[in-house]
Predict the structure.
Amino acid sequence: MGNSPRECVGQVFALLGPPRSGSSAIMRGLACLGVHLGDNSNLRAPDPNNPEGFWEDKKVKAICEAFMADSGMRWDSLRHLDHAEFSTGIGHQYFTQAVSVVTDAVNSAPNKIWGVKNPRMALMVSFWLSVFASSGCDDRYVVSLRNPLSVAASIVRGSPHRGTGSRPTYLHLVWMTHMIGALAPAMAGKPTVIVDYDAVMARPESELHRMADAIGLGPMCDAKAVAQYAADFLKPGLRHSAFAADQFLHDPHVPKVVRDAYSAASGAATEGAGPNSPEFRSRWLKIVEDFGTLAPVLRLADDHESERTQRRAFAGAFYRRMPPGIKRMLAGKRPQGASGS
């Protein structure tokens, strides 16, 4: 893929992070800081799981989902797309599409300042870094952080079958894989800020101002819009779970490397040494190295989850084709027309 930039002198603010980490609420906050999130016609529609909106560009979402599917990856895979996969013929096609989408979005945004997010972007972050470079954009990053216990609980709430057996540990590894991708731009020297979702819910105005200052949006901050966001958008119902730090530290399902990662990221979101500091960089690279030693186990777990997903999809398709009477019998209901003895 070529890296010569197209005519696109503007800024992209990409929000990266694990799924169910409060990214939609944080993304909406970026609009208060002068970042254009796209026209409503280009945004993913709200649904019962996220009635306040996802704030995700539909074209970016389609590219992420299609490219990952063609590469044999799921949203919860324990690996990242690599450069070898970008260099294929299909990879070039997705790359060209993505550059076009980014260029058009930035050029049509007021002040040429555009915000984009999709949870899958963290698993293909090298791809998007290359896309932004080829689009001629000044790219900056927001990383959404949430307690891994809350992330797992939110995922299980939407997919109850994930709450059994070893699933909590697997979901913590998913969180870790996404966080490594989300912080890759910071490790490459890109301006990055980590924003804790629970802190946003507790102190929305101060957190938005901190985020704005960290990534160069301070002058764009609309105080009235920030106050309205805090009062009207951040409803208590947005967050269905919140865990205390001691619960996380003592949960037996959480691997040590995940504890270390959350501790480091949480500190960078609340203390002076942010993700672009030498102190954080040194600490984070050691954590990434420790996680890398688990590669054989991660491949095994990922393959097992892939097989499990395929079996579940087959069982679901088989069940949908069953006659209604058989479905009622499986559910323990009396067939229609049957009478008691």
Summary: The mean pLDDT is 86. The two ends are 73 Å apart (CA to CA). The first strand starts at residue 10 and ends at 16. The beta strands are 10-16, 113-117, 137-145, 192-196.
